[in-house]
Amino acid sequence: MSAVPGRRDILKSAALASVGLAAHGAPSKTPKVIHVGVVGVGGRGSALLMNLLRLDGVVVSAICDPQADRVANAQQMVAQTGQPKPEGYSRGDQDFRRVADREDLDLVVNATPWEWHAPISLAMLRSGKHVATEVPAALTVDECWELVETAEKTGLHCTMLENDCYDRITLAILNMIRAGVLGEPLFAEAGYCHDLRAVQFNTVKNGEPWRLDHSVRRNGNLYPTHPIGQVAMWMDINRGDRFDYMVSMSSRSRAMHEFAVKQFGASDPRAKLKFNQGDTNTSLIRTASGRYISLYFDTSTPRPKEEIMRLQCAKGCYSALEDKIFIEGRSNRSEGPGWLHSPHFEPLEPYLTEYDHPLWKTRGPQAAGSGHGGIDYMEMYRLIKNLQLGQPLDIDVYDAVTWSVLAPLSEFSVANRNRSVDVPDFTRGKWKHRPPLDSDAII
Ligand SMILES: NC(=O)c1ccc[n+]([C@@H]2O[C@H](COP(=O)([O-])OP(=O)(O)OC[C@H]3O[C@@H](n4cnc5c(N)ncnc54)[C@H](O)[C@@H]3O)[C@@H](O)[C@H]2O)c1
User: Which residue of 38, 39, 44, 166 sits with most ligand 1 atoms within 8 Å of its CB, as the best mutation to test the pocket?
Assistant: First the structure.
């Protein structure tokens, strides 16, 4: 064996360090070329590919999707940037195994429907590739453990593409927590409440027809990671605190049926579907240190998309719905004495300027124009940069499964009269000693 580490060894040593199996490998000073395969090039996979192609040091050499026209479109996207046309794989839903067989890929981006996330990620890890999967990372508790055990055993990265963690406000709030301005986080209210009836019934461009089956079969919080990832970052989950247990409750189902009747007529088979998923779901999650989170999920009712995010800390609070912030001693300094002078919120904007995160200060212009207000660029930029430098990733396998497992656990609680259910400690005790995410290092 050569004494000089090759590209794979350097990339692997960073993954080992991030899952706590080895000391940091000597990080490479020269950014490496990262060879990438993309599996699943529908709406999301194409958007991720576009952001990958904007980064230096990325070569996309494999595209996989059972839909050949989508593969051809993605191959063209790559070729248009001047890179060689990547190999295409479209021989059905198991063809990702031929991608796994390749020896030249460092990273596989997995943007397939939910049920494919864990099987594809596991195949890539087992064949020696880092994997970045779309949300959620897995659908069952067993799959979550399998991802952890495989990432630990192989020493490879298994990250989840939770783009909301890179939101400008989210990172500014993290900055304010680290600076002691907001005080210690105590409670958060967060939700994914987004009318996806047309997306589920596939009556719009870029529909996601595979989502409907989940609403028929399952009942719980099916999409927890967007809101919970940000909260977990603020509350140092898996890095000093951890989710201890949760309870979950769903409403009855009505709106999906009414939508189908209105759209397709009462005699259409889609109007006869029975939906197990309650139209709205609420979960309560308690942490080991005594914080808690109220988490909402609703993709079934008619409503505008709401950014439900409220964080209460010991020295103040932030409300996304109000787009405002309150810091005791600062927001109410003009108030007179006495309890009748209730404190009031301030606009967030001046705080955003004062506490803007270094990532947004330095990369904001590059992110402008990319999806979801720039966060899609930021997540890819951070992933590739960390791989190139041999650094631990911002979101590791423990984060990926801890945020994802809330879906199956909520299903269990809903099905069992809202019984409380323990959240597994995927770090096996390491959460007590793992340092908080270094906000300043996210640049
Ligand atoms: N983070 C975000 O902001 C965000 C936004 C949208 C979607 N998503 C997530 O991205 C994922 C994909 O969503 P989408 O909207 O692109 O769905 P989509 O239906 O548009 O695309 C999924 C693609 O995967 C392909 N596919 C299915 N099975 C496959 C297999 N076995 N191997 C390879 N390819 C396979 C399909 O043919 C399709 O082209 C989902 O997990 C979704 O939740 C995330």
Answer: 44
Helix (H) or strand (E) holding 74, with range, is: helix 68-80
Q: How confident is the model at residue 336 (pLDDT cuts 50, 70, 90)?
A: low
Contacts of 202 (CB under 8 A, 6+ apart): 208, 209, 212
Domain boundaries, the chain: 7-160, 165-357+397-441
CA distances from 215 to 114, 230, 275, 298, 302 (A): 13, 25, 6, 11, 16
Q: How far is the CA of 39 from the centre of ligand 1 (A)?
A: 9
Q: Is the pLDDT assigned to residue 26 strictly greater than 60?
A: no
Contacting residues for 404 by C-beta, under 8 A, at least 6 apart: 135, 136, 137, 138, 139, 144, 160, 224, 225
Burial per residue of 266-296, b for 16 or more beta-carbon CB atoms within 10 angstroms, e otherwise = eeeebbebebbbbbbbbbbbbbbeebbbebb
CATH of the domain spanning 165-357+397-441: 3.30.360.10
Q: How far apart are CA 382 and CA 247, in angstroms?
A: 34
Rounded to the nearest whole angstrom, what is the distance from the C-alpha of residue 215 to the centroid of ligand 1? 17
Percent of the chain with pLDDT over 90: 85
pLDDT in tens, 165-191: 999 999 999 999 999 999 999 999 999
CATH topology classification for 7-160: Rossmann fold (3.40.50)
Spatial separation of the C-alpha atoms in residues 210 and 203, rounded to whole Å: 13
Which atom of ligand 1 is nearest the CA belonging to 96? Answer: 32
- Quote the CA–CA distance of 190 and 167 in Å, as a whole number: 15
- Strands laid side by side in the 87-89 sheet: 87-89, 58-64, 34-39, 107-110, 130-133, 158-160
Distance CA 236, CA 375 (A): 21
pLDDT at 5: 36
Using the mean position of ligand 1's atoms as its centre, give its distance from the Cα of residue 290 in Å. Answer: 36
